[in-house]
Design brief:
Elements lengths: L3 E2 L22 H25 L4 H49 L5 H14 L5 E5 L4 E6 L14 H9 L3 E3 L2 H4 L10 E9 L2 E10 L7 H41 L2 H17 L1 H20 L4 E3 H19 L3 E7 L7 E3 L4 H10 L8 E9 L3 E8 L6 H5 L10 H16 L4 E7 L3 E9 L3
Parallel strand pairs: 8-10
Antiparallel strand pairs: 1-4, 2-3, 2-6, 4-5, 5-6, 7-9, 10-11, 11-13, 12-13
């Protein structure tokens, strides 16, 4: 039987354990329920006796009337008042868990933070016997019953969890078969799986497991989704904080990578050599260098059009061309309708600089660089391709690692991180390279982002 989606899940009654009063140890609503039942039983008994004993009709009428009034009051309380009380308890529980978990989720989604949050939720849970958190590929944290075989670190195996990630829709699993645990002795027989989201896309799931499917009710589902929403908010805050830190870092990287000391020295040395042999060329190069340098300082954290980015790129390349001459060539294949496309500054120039700095062959063969920009109905595609020496396979595998080295890795990581920070996770940055044949770096921007 397929897993039930949220809009297919309509339990007949609430089965939530009440949050007890910390002072008296018993919920006042429980006491009121007990007293009400006792009164109803007493009145029902009196009414029965009055009928059997043939008491005056008005005594029977009074008893039945009182019984009807009390029954109406109970119905009103159950239908109107009690749900409000349960919702208040549920909200208080969610906020209590969120207060404990916030310090962990602000650090991002990792095995350490996921494990801590799972334990917090389980400690405060009403009916769940286990809690798990996943990213898009694997289980990051698990706490509770079944932790002997539902261990963190394994890949996601349940189809329902993958469906939740792909559809962004909560699912309720009502059988062991739907959970898909390979252990035949697993005590987990039901589950609620809800997506954790960032910028509208699922980046993982929060899963509540139960040892009895009778615990599957709207209260549990609402609590799971409420917690997932709060945790998702904290994850988005974490990403925003990372992006803010990256923006500040990029202001320095723009001077370190785009205007690095080697480039400054080589450019000034080239201009100096032209002063003696070709003063007019030296004057033009000096103007371009000044414009290039000013552009770097003024637009480091601004949005520019693709046309502006290409102008800046041409200024940079003209300075490198003056140095390397015929060993460098640049071609541009740009769709005209994209020239007004808005984008962050310094997205293409670092890729071209990587070509110049890392792709030129020691044999002195010319390096041909091609910059492209195109689009379809859903995406914008931009890329930089060269026919240089390429990137070794072992270097390519670790090129985005945080500690992979300087130069090439730093510039590419910056482009990738800024792309995701601005356009979201639907946008992508990829590198393809064949050692000895060339490299292609390109990014895809989702238009709806």
């Amino acid at each position: 039987m397929p897993a039930a989606r949220k809009d297919e899940f309509y339990p007949s009654a609430l089965d939530n354990k009440p949050v007890k009063n910390d002072l008296k140890g018993v919920d006042r609503n429980d006491i009121l329920d007990i007293v009400t039942v006792v009164i109803i039983l007493m009145l029902s008994g009196i009414s029965l006796i009055s009928i059997i004993a043939k008491w005056p009709w008005y005594i029977t009428f009074i008893n039945v009337s009182i019984l009807a009034i009390i029954s109406f009051a109970i119905a009103y309380r159950v239908v109107i008042v009690r749900p409000d009380h349960l919702r208040a308890q549920q909200s208080d529980l969610i906020l209590r868990i969120a207060r404990e978990a916030i310090s962990f989720m602000r650090k991002g989604l990792s095995p350490e933070t996921a494990d801590a949050v799972c334990r917090i939720i389980l400690r405060n849970s009403t009916a769940a016997v286990s809690v798990a958190i996943t990213d898009r590929q694997s289980v990051l944290g698990f706490a509770g019953v079944g932790n002997d075989h539902h261990s963190a670190g394994r890949s996601i195996v349940t189809r329902a969890t993958k469906d939740v990630i792909n559809t962004n829709i909560s699912q309720v699993l009502t059988t062991k078969h739907e959970i898909g645990c390979p252990d035949p002795k697993c005590p987990l027989v039901a589950a609620i799986v809800v997506p954790l989201k960032s910028q509208g896309s699922a980046i993982g799931t929060l899963k509540f497991y139960y040892d009895d499917d009778r615990h599957l009710n709207e209260t549990e589902l609402a609590m799971a989704e409420g917690l997932a929403s709060l945790l998702s908010t904290q994850l988005e805050i974490h990403e925003l904080e990372e992006q803010a830190a990256l923006t500040t870092e990029m202001e320095l990287k723009a001077l370190q990578a785009q205007i690095n000391p080697h480039f400054l020295f080589n450019t000034l040395n080239t201009i100096s050599s032209f002063i003696r042999t070709d003063p007019n060329t030296a004057r033009e190069l000096l103007k371009k260098f000044a414009t290039f340098y000013r552009h770097t300082l003024e637009h480091v954290d601004e949005e520019v059009t693709l046309a502006d980015e290409l102008d800046f790129l041409e200024q940079y390349f003209s300075l490198e061309k003056a140095r390397f001459g015929d060993r460098l060539s640049l071609e541009m294949d740009i769709e005209e309708d994209l020239r007004d496309f808005a984008m962050p500054a310094f997205m293409l120039q670092p890729l071209v600089e990587n070509c110049v700095g890392h792709a030129m062959r020691e044999t002195g063969e010319p390096l041909h660089i091609t910059v492209t920009a195109s689009q379809d109905a859903d995406f914008v595609y931009m890329g930089v391709e060269d026919d240089g020496c390429g990137i070794p396979e072992e270097r390519l595998a670790t090129i985005f690692d945080q500690h992979s080295g300087k130069g090439l890795g730093i510039a590419l990581r910056n482009v990738r991180d800024r792309l995701i920070g601005v356009y979201g996770r639907k946008s992508k940055f990829n590198i393809e390279s064949s050692h000895g044949k060339g490299t292609k770096a390109y990014f895809v921007i989702a238009k709806e982002s």
